[in-house]
Amino acid sequence: MRSGIDPAAVDPAVRPQDDLFAHVNGRWVASTPIPPDRGRYGTFDILRETAEAHVREIIEEVAAGSPEPGTVAAKVGDLYSCFMDEETVEALGAAPLAADLERVAAVSGPADVVAATGTFGRAGILGLVLPFVNTDDRDPDRYVVYLEQAGLGLPDESYYREEQHADKRTAYVAHVERMLALASWPDPAGAAARVMALETRLAAGHWDKVTNRDPVKTYTLVDLAGLAEMGPGVDWEAYLAGLGATPAAFDAVVVRQPDHVRSVAAALAEEPVATWRDWLAWHVVHAHAPYLSAAFVEENFDFYGRTLSGVPEMRERWKRGVGLVEESLGEAVGQLYVERHFPPHAKDAMVELVGNLVEAFRRSLSEVPWMGDDTRREALTKLGQFTPKIGYPQQWRDYTALEIVPGDLLGNVRRAVAFEVDRQLAKLGGPVDRDEWFMTPQTVNAYYNPGLNEIVFPAAILQPPFFDVEADAAVNYGGIGAVIGHEIGHGFDDQGSQFDGTGTLRNWWTDEDRAAFQALADALVTQFDELETRDAPGHKVNGALTVGENIGDLGGLTIGHLAYRISLGGDPAPVIDGRTGDQRFFVGWAQVWRGAARRAEAERLLALDPHSPMDLRANAVRNLTEFHEAFDVAPGDGMWVDPQHRVRIF
């Protein structure tokens, strides 16, 4: 049996006791350049490239097969073909923007602004709020509309206020000016300055990313009248009409950031309508730039790729075309992907893995010392109600209502967004679809959904180094096993632990147990606050932003390791390639996080990403006594953590 460990990546000059990430991945990092079209590159990206190539093969085969017009195969082929038709796109130039910009020019007051954002929302253009439909956190047997803060062109509210982003703000204003000039919008320099001033005002009303992690603070349930009271002067009925919804859609609406709604109402009343026209024009151009002529595409990439992430080159056009098809018709492609690339025995093996991980978590919850009996009973009940989903959905999405017109790229993009808006709105008032997936099978990722209390593992992640049916169990448990444990752990992290087994947001903890949990979480925040990634030295991790994912990683490691022990059935683990089973488990974990990032991208992710950097995720094993024992880590070693400072939650 092969170990599943890549020996060519291992740097024998670095001891695992000093730096597990560098030991397992050092030679790979030293010898593998980051591709010029990427801000970071690692295991996930390599697998995504493989999945992307597989999807390209499927799409191009479909496109070349002359499918019957109107079939889903024809829609896939036609959408991809019109994106790849550069000659037509180039000839059109800025013409596809004309109708939207004429509408913007006709805006004459706040009601028109709000109505326009609704109409534009159906076309994928960012407005003042971002609506989405999901199960009600307080009543998971029904759907409601959520309103998320929006309105900004920079990645986050912090970019408008923090000194470290001052150069990005300057570059942003210049970028907005150039884009508006390409669209022939009048006074592009003045308009860009006004857009920046307005967005700075809106950003001041945004909540930061740490605050937005709190599911209680971000839950304010109102009806249409309550929303009007919260944001006086905002014509919500006009917004809904533009979006294609009736007023009944806001019979129950969850406002995630009430301060933002109040801020928007004040800005609509006080800012000149000409400024709002500039802002609307900018967001029309920005949203549609990737589907316009080369001048727009290049300028858009120059700021959002080169300036913000340090990426030297744009992705090839076919890759961007595949991405568009994935966004618009993802499950149609996914059905073919599963047939070709996900054998039934892989799903069977995953079912066994998930079963062992759930059993390991059950044992851990039964014994964890800081949790009292009342909370423990609730936790075990929740674990017993987990729903695992593996590989692909049981029911595939129906794309009959989506019209794709050959040769009409931007029109197809707009229709695809409108199709999804209508699909989401149609959920309101109906039964909750517990079979729905929120990732396609060809996505290299996984997720936990607290509202449905489910853990979901798409087919594309179920391949080496995460999962190899022919490899040693230790490496599989260190890879996909720990990922499974990570997703289960999200059900009990700082956010997920506030939902019960039915998906209801309610406090099922005793005060004492919540305090004990919070003390452990705070210790993890403090620990990561002091850490720097090797990709951005001098910049520390935001422990409060990343605490949920860090809890997930620790849970995945501890539960994954226990599940590996369970899988042995009491038999001793074999020694393979000179490594014990426990050592191979931790090496398997570390090679999952193999990768590197450009400095600009690493700094951007530190500000925005709730996940810690890859090297720090690999080295999170320093909290486990099992790791210290596996490698005989001693005081003075780089990975040593005093026992009293090791954070263990599960």
TrEMBL record:
Membrane-crossing ranges are none
Q: Which residues form a coiled coil?
A: none
- Listed cofactors: Zn(2+)
Boundaries of every Peptidase M13 C-terminal domain copy = 445-647
Q: Which UniProt keywords apply?
A: Hydrolase, Metal-binding, Metalloprotease, Protease, Zinc
User: Where does the record place the Peptidase M13 N-terminal domain?
Assistant: 16-393
Identify the SUPFAM superfamilies for this entry: Metalloproteases ('zincins'), catalytic domain
Cited PANTHER family: FI17812P1-RELATED, ZINC METALLOPROTEASE FAMILY M13 NEPRILYSIN-RELATED
The record's family statement is: Belongs to the peptidase M13 family.
Name used for this protein in its record = M13 family metallopeptidase
Origin organism is Fodinibacter luteus
